[in-house]
Automatic annotation (TrEMBL), chains A, B:
<dbReference type="InterPro" id="IPR027477">
    <property type="entry name" value="Succ_DH/fumarate_Rdtase_cat_sf"/>
</dbReference>
<dbReference type="GO" id="GO:0008202">
    <property type="term" value="P:steroid metabolic process"/>
</dbReference>
<dbReference type="InterPro" id="IPR003953">
    <property type="entry name" value="FAD-dep_OxRdtase_2_FAD-bd"/>
</dbReference>
<dbReference type="InterPro" id="IPR036188">
    <property type="entry name" value="FAD/NAD-bd_sf"/>
</dbReference>
<feature type="domain" description="FAD-dependent oxidoreductase 2 FAD-binding">
    <location>
        <begin position="23"/>
        <end position="484"/>
    </location>
</feature>
<keyword id="KW-0560">Oxidoreductase</keyword>
<dbReference type="InterPro" id="IPR050315">
    <property type="entry name" value="FAD-oxidoreductase_2"/>
</dbReference>
<dbReference type="GO" id="GO:0033765">
    <property type="term" value="F:steroid dehydrogenase activity, acting on the CH-CH group of donors"/>
</dbReference>
<dbReference type="Pfam" id="PF00890">
    <property type="entry name" value="FAD_binding_2"/>
</dbReference>
<keyword id="KW-0274">FAD</keyword>
<protein>
    <submittedName>
        <fullName>Fumarate reductase flavoprotein subunit</fullName>
    </submittedName>
</protein>
<keyword id="KW-0285">Flavoprotein</keyword>
């Protein structure tokens, strides 16, 4: 049994005096916190944002900066794509399922164009051009990218349109996004207090949340929040005891976080009776180069294909980790996942976009590559033959990869062991050599205004949440940009609702 | 958002008077409740068992009655098997993982021979003979059966010994087991009260649990429990809102329960701050005849094999549902799973043991069967060829099915659509035609004495749990007999601990 420090709620009678008094307290200064702080301040509330780190940013600032937006944004239209909130919702329902929140998805998609303009008004720049190939992070400042919308099975349920919007930064745009959002929050006169780790919620006699207790430089301080506390503390990927209890498949992989996703916000709210959803769900950044995978095959330890290689790469990662036992969470051992590609496919991805990935094995024939990689006799031979038949007829009968990416693989063939990883560390940056970098999607149950809901589905007075501390839009699936997306979108709602909670 | 009735804890000050006074109150009269009641009464406590139904039994009485026992029981020895607690623990760690509870597994295995004798002393009969083929429920009164121990990958980590112990009843033994356990509890002078649905825990000012409030024939009654309340209320497979929040893959399938696994015990304890574990985990009874599967191939919608067909059939079910998208929880639609078998394999399973299953398609050649079943061109042809090569060399290089079950498949070949189901309903009885019948494994976090633990891992005064309301031994894997096994084993511990809680 893992012994953890108990998380308790403090009664106001246990608090001698409040050191700080504000209207709205935002706990955590990533993208969700900044969006919440901005809106709360703009609505006229006194706002304080605290963060345990020495400055703003959190995991948001380390991210690629993609924000999932659509329904007909100016960037989509400039790139020649029609889109509607309904098509966007149909895609997200399929991609974020099972059991993605239909009401949140509908609201998010209906408000997406407005949210785009809100980001632009906060200074976030989007270049109106498209990066048109599978990738984790385009090497350009293109403002639009596909995130699986034009891949099977999503092509069956929604008209494809690219919706990955990215700030105009080469490579990782999270830092730029955070600069814009924190400047907006501070211009709106939200105050900040860093090096402050919130440990307990403070409740009134009627169990309404009226403040917090925090540790700051070894001292305990109490902060009064007259209109509400908004938790934007992130997920729990840094808490191995919580992973073991709820999402053990994610244990042992590289953690995508700023090192502070310890689940504290979830636990503080649960101690007050909050409900949670989908605590077993996780995003899986698989350590492969999507452009190489799309031009070749991805196979499991039996040499079988298991996914269309042109889809959103996080979907390949989830399939590898949750279904193919990469990582070895299930009995049978940590199994390999391989990218198989020929020279033409390898060279088609420019060297800088390969992030240092090289073939781990090269065979003059499929038979030789099979021997070198230790795949079972005949497995790769069969799979290459079948794949090349599909390429010849222009149709992938098994996994429906788009014909654009289907081309017979011509020996010599290279195999890339996904566990050899991607260097340098990137959004898919697997620093431990497990083939995967992960974060959690499960979290607090919230309503459309960010109220935290209790086990019976009623809102808890004075308590709000947004960003990865909440479950947000997500079922067990994931698409890049939906974290910064739902964090900022519902963070804004939470900020507005808290400010009005007089 | 699903609106549920709020679950609240009642302060003792809100209870006018207690209608009934006892020492130990057991809530739920399945196998765990009966075991707890017996031990609490034997330890000298006044015991009352309540159940919402009109009599004892719950899901336990509807089950096959298997109890997972080993470490060298008399039945194992009589059948010629050596076994040790260490081998048993190694198997369970692999089979119940990821993140199965190591302390509980060690305790359970160390105490397993004693627990066998306890069951025998309660009158549970075990015939000392072995049923030696994969099955859900043997059609004999054999007291011992394999539950995957002699199948890959478990053969890699533990010396195989059969550990499925079953009461001497033809077919389903759960009713006989429950008759023995309830008679034991009542002989030990545990009282019973039926038609009584517990709705709230009652707590003292120090938050210790001191009783419950229940509904009985439309009236609210309060029961004082001076030494403790033991929750044995079952899982939450009958609560679709909880499934959507925690285990959406299980939605829509046949529910293995007595219709009362509504999660009420979990919610009542959570309202008091209890922690939970592995709420996404589920057992999957796949609607196939294990003896047919072992003699043939199980393939997915691409005609690929994905598991060794001679393993514990629940493992095939978990793989089908969680990894092959049978049920369609993930995007891409509800995909088929097929059993492919030839005439010799089909006839080798006696007609009564086929539970009415018939081929849904028959082809004179693999090519014809492929066309009839709609499998992609060439898929089944490749897989049959590869399988027959493995059979010829006596080694399944892909999934390591034991050579005993490897035999070339000779046309004509039959395909059985798993979603066509199994009739009559059985332990694997899929009454809705989805191909699966399911129950939940996640639940309350408990210690070795059945104390319910809070979010920080500290025990909650006066509150115990056992059976499927608790997470017990389980990670995300499952083996038949571990539910009745951990329910009765840790139910006994909880009963003893509660009786001593003066």
């Amino acid at each position: 049994m893992t012994v953890r420090k108990a998380v308790t709620t403090r009664a106001v009678t246990e608090v001698d005096e409040f050191d700080i008094d504000t209207d709205v307290l935002v706990v955590g200064y990533g993208a969700a916190g900044a969006a919440a702080a901005f809106e709360a301040a703009r609505a006229g509330a006194r706002v304080l944002v605290v963060d345990r780190a020495g400055g703003a940013g959190g995991a948001s600032a380390l991210s690629g900066g993609e924000i999932y937006l659509g329904g007909g944004t100016p960037v989509q239209r400039a790139c020649g794509f029609d889109d509607t909130p309904e098509e966007m919702a149909a895609f997200l329902t399929a991609a974020l399922g099972p059991s993605a929140d239909p009401a949140k998805i509908a609201e998010y998609c209906a408000g997406s164009v407005e949210h785009f303009h809100w980001l632009v008004d906060r200074g976030v720049p989007f270049t109106p051009s498209l990066w048109d190939a599978p990738t984790w992070v385009p090497p350009t400042d293109d403002g639009l990218m596909w995130l699986g919308e034009n891949s099977w099975p999503f092509t069956e349920s929604a008209r494809p349109a690219p919706r990955g919007h990215r700030p105009a930064a080469h490579d990782f745009g999270g830092r730029l996004l955070m600069e814009c959002l924190t400047e907006a929050a501070e211009t709106a006169r939200a105050g900040t207090l860093f090096d402050t780790y919130v440990t307990n919620l403070v409740i009134a006699e009627d169990r309404t949340v009226i403040g917090v207790v925090a540790r700051r430089y070894g001292r305990e301080i109490a902060i009064r929040a007259r209109r509400g506390v908004i938790l934007t503390t992130g997920g729990f990927v840094d808490n191995d005891a919580m992973l073991a209890a709820h999402a053990p498949h994610l244990l042992g992989h590289t953690k995508v976080s700023a090192g502070t996703d310890d689940g504290s916000g979830i636990l503080m709210a649960q101690a007050l009776g909050a409900g949670v959803r989908h605590m077993g769900a996780g995003q899986v950044g698989i350590s492969l180069i999507p452009g190489l995978a799309a031009r070749g095959m991805v196979v499991n330890a039996r040499g079988q294909r298991f996914v269309n290689e042109d889809t959103y790469p996080g979907r390949i990662g989830q399939a590898a980790l949750f279904r193919q036992n990469m990582g070895g969470a299930w009995a049978g051992g940590d199994t390999a996942v391989w990218v198989i590609v020929d020279e033409e496919g390898f060279e088609a991805v420019p060297e800088p976009q390969r992030w240092g990935v090289r073939p781990t094995h090269v065979g003059e024939t499929p038979e030789e590559l099979e021997r070198l990689t230790g795949l079972p006799d005949g497995a790769l031979v069969d799979t290459v033959r079948r794949y090349n038949e599909f390429a010849a007829r222009g149709a992938d009968l098994d996994f429906h990869k788009a014909s654009r990416w289907l081309r017979p693989l011509t020996p010599p063939l290279a195999a890339i062991d996904v566990k050899a990883g991607v260097r340098p560390p990137a959004e898919s940056g697997d620093r431990r050599g497990t083939g995967a970098s992960v974060f959690t999607l499960g979290g607090l149950h919230t309503d459309l205004d960010g109220h935290v809901l209790d086990l019976g589905g009623s809102s808890i007075g004075g308590l709000f949440a947004a960003g990865r501390v909440a479950n947000g839009l997500h079922g067990f699936g994931y698409i890049s940009g939906t974290s910064l997306g739902d964090g900022t979108f519902f963070g804004r709602r939470a900020g507005t609702a808290a400010a009005r909670n007089e």
